[in-house]
From TrEMBL:
<dbReference type="Pfam" id="PF00158">
    <property type="entry name" value="Sigma54_activat"/>
</dbReference>
<dbReference type="GO" id="GO:0043565">
    <property type="term" value="F:sequence-specific DNA binding"/>
</dbReference>
<dbReference type="Pfam" id="PF02954">
    <property type="entry name" value="HTH_8"/>
</dbReference>
<dbReference type="InterPro" id="IPR025943">
    <property type="entry name" value="Sigma_54_int_dom_ATP-bd_2"/>
</dbReference>
<dbReference type="InterPro" id="IPR009057">
    <property type="entry name" value="Homeodomain-like_sf"/>
</dbReference>
<dbReference type="GO" id="GO:0006355">
    <property type="term" value="P:regulation of DNA-templated transcription"/>
</dbReference>
<dbReference type="InterPro" id="IPR003593">
    <property type="entry name" value="AAA+_ATPase"/>
</dbReference>
<dbReference type="Pfam" id="PF13188">
    <property type="entry name" value="PAS_8"/>
</dbReference>
<keyword id="KW-0804">Transcription</keyword>
<dbReference type="InterPro" id="IPR035965">
    <property type="entry name" value="PAS-like_dom_sf"/>
</dbReference>
<keyword id="KW-0238">DNA-binding</keyword>
<protein>
    <recommendedName>
        <fullName>Sigma-54 factor interaction domain-containing protein</fullName>
    </recommendedName>
</protein>
<keyword id="KW-0805">Transcription regulation</keyword>
<feature type="domain" description="Sigma-54 factor interaction">
    <location>
        <begin position="161"/>
        <end position="391"/>
    </location>
</feature>
<dbReference type="InterPro" id="IPR002078">
    <property type="entry name" value="Sigma_54_int"/>
</dbReference>
<dbReference type="InterPro" id="IPR000014">
    <property type="entry name" value="PAS"/>
</dbReference>
<dbReference type="Pfam" id="PF25601">
    <property type="entry name" value="AAA_lid_14"/>
</dbReference>
Length: 488
């Protein structure tokens, strides 16, 4: 326990020696000061009242009272950057806080000032708002800042994941909540559902969003190289070792996130080593004397049933329980059929860059076929089918129909119909009725997004969409967007 008088004498005076501290008690917003180790050195009355804290917090560590302390104050100390995030006490009081690191004339970190305001939003809306703020922050970086910020601007956010189905909205909601914890997250889902995109979104929604995001495909690592890849090695560790050694993935992920894809493929000996790293945060590099500490957050992903693997002795039970503090399930495409038009329009817009002279339209019969298809490969399979269909279009064609679909798609569709694995007739009729409306909504969204991203420049928007300006105006008129566009 650090004596509060020592903190006040050593740090507090250096930070606010020229400030009349009584001024802070006149403010309605909460203000708190922390030393460079994360200990309280001052709180005004509004801060104490806002979070129901006792005056005895002075000299105590932020994590003694706040569940989010490690992601807020400590993140600001670690990165030396202003941090915006939610604040949650152990008594479940929520607020929004702005954390500002304080440095002296020599650039030495002296502490952190926290300004807090109460949140009138419910928890989910607050987390969604903060996710949007962080997304806008990343978009506002200059090119040089993006390079410096570990090149994370290309990572997905929850906002960028396409889908409006209730199961996807629920996944986003849970994901934003889980992101604020430092505990491991296990992302579960069938092949092709987008587990890596969700892992990226979790990282971007966390307080580590401007820190490294390190990806490891466990299934692609040969067993004999796994330890050196994950933990690194020193000079002379083995024949052929690089002079100077090599950093392992866990060391590279220090202060950031490590994503272990296909984590169920780890062999049992490596599972034991992973468990130790998770429990201690200590890394043992090959041929290194002593251990290295790494401050990382782990996200794992699997398409396997780890609980069943535990029962069969293929996966350690203690590691499974350590990894599955938070499980985030990604729904298969067959459970979110209503999202298919949005996904189709998204992928068509992505791919149309290869042939920008065409205004691609989707035949309703194609949507009907998509509604009947079992989609065992999920969203990845949908994208591949659309790429095939787009390249199958003739030079004089601009409408995607079932004739442009790959032969294997039609064979799978027929086999599913015979096996009775397609949706029942009533569901199919309902899906068919909804698809036209959903497709129109998707096209409207794509049009407006193009306008916003081009700052309402009609030439740039038309070029982005791969259509002429006259066609852009016609589309805007069809969707009732022309007046809104001209008002900008």
């Amino acid at each position: 326990m650090i004596d509060s008088s020592m903190i006040l004498k050593a740090t507090f005076e250096k930070i606010i020696e020229s400030i009349n501290i009584g001024i802070f008690d006149l403010l309605h917003t909460g203000v708190a000061l922390f030393c460079d180790k994360g200990f309280f050195i001052y709180c005004n009355k509004s801060f104490l009242k806002m979070y129901n804290l006792p005056e005895s917090v002075i000299g105590k560590h932020i994590t003694d009272y706040f569940l989010t302390g490690e992601r807020g104050v400590m993140s600001s100390i670690r990165t030396r950057k202003m941090v915006i995030c939610s604040s949650q006490t152990k008594n479940n009081v929520w607020g929004v806080s702005f954390r500002y690191p304080i440095q002296d004339e020599q650039g030495q970190l002296r502490g952190v000032v926290v300004e807090s305001i109460p949140s009138n939003l419910d928890k989910d809306k607050l987390l969604a708002l903060l996710d949007t703020v962080r997304n806008l922050e990343m978009k506002s970086y200059s090119f040089s800042e993006q390079k410096e910020a570990h090149k994370n601007s290309g990572l997905y956010t929850f906002e960028a994941i396409v889908g409006e189905a209730p199961c996807i909205e629920n996944m986003r909601c849970l994901g934003r909540r889980f992101a604020f914890s430092q505990e491991p997250i296990l992302v579960c889902g069938e092949s092709g559902t987008g587990k890596e995109l969700v892992a990226q979104a979790l990282h971007m929604a966390s307080q580590r969003s401007d820190r490294p995001f390190v990806t490891v495909n466990c299934a692609a690592l040969p067993p004999e190289l796994m330890e050196s890849e994950l933990f690194g090695y020193e000079t002379g560790a083995f024949t052929g070792a690089k002079v100077g050694g090599v950093k392992g993935k866990f060391e590279m992920a220090d202060t950031g996130t490590i994503f272990l894809d296909e984590i169920g493929e780890l062999p049992l000996p490596m599972q034991a080593k992973l468990l130790r790293v998770l429990e201690t945060g200590e890394i043992q590099k090959i041929a290194h004397k002593g251990q290295l500490h790494s401050d990382f957050r782990l996200i794992g992903a699997t398409n396997r049933n780890l609980a069943e693997m535990v029962r069969q002795g293929q996966f350690r039970e203690d590691l499974y329980h350590r990894l599955s503090v938070f499980e985030l399930d990604i729904p298969p495409l067959r459970d979110r059929v209503s999202d298919i038009p949005l996904l189709v329009r998204h992928f068509v817009t992505q791919s149309v860059g290869d042939n920008r002279q065409k205004d691609i339209r989707i035949d309703d019969a194609l949507y009907d076929a998509f509604a009947q298809y079992p989609w065992r490969g999920n969203v990845r399979e949908l994208k591949n089918v659309l790429v095939y269909a787009l390249y199958s279009l003739g030079d004089d064609q601009s409408v995607l129909t079932v004739q442009h679909l790959p032969p294997r798609f039609m064979r799978e569709l027929e086999a599913a119909a015979v096996a009775g694995t397609t949706p029942d007739a009533e569901d199919s009729r309902q899906d068919s009725q909804n698809f036209s409306e959903a497709s129109a909504r998707a096209e409207r969204k794509v049009l407006w997004d193009a306008l916003v991203n081009s700052r309402y420049n009609k030439v740039l928007a038309a070029r982005t969409l791969g259509i002429s300006r006259s066609k852009l105006y016609r589309k805007l008129r069809e969707h009732g967007l022309l007046a809104k566009f001209e008002a900008q």
